[in-house]
Amino acid sequence: MKIHPMFRKVANIAFALFFLMTASGLTIQENFCYDKLISVFIDKTSEKCCDTPCPGCHIKVVTFKIADTFLNASKK
Ligand SMILES: [Zn+2]
Q1: Is the per-residue pLDDT at 21 higher than 80?
Q2: Secretion signal: which residues (predicted)?
């Protein structure tokens, strides 16, 4: 099977961009009100959940560091 050269180019650019984004660490913040997901922020930490903070509000921060994963995997 032959891969179209254009597709390969696009895939390489997409991977490069993805790597650049994740190399420095990508932080995703999810704001929950009880079990309900209110909002998602990318690379932003806001303390706000609901417009008026309530006892059920809590924030989940997820950090991706793909570069570290690659480095750790190569050491094994
Ligand atoms: Zn809330």
Answers
A1: no
A2: 1-28
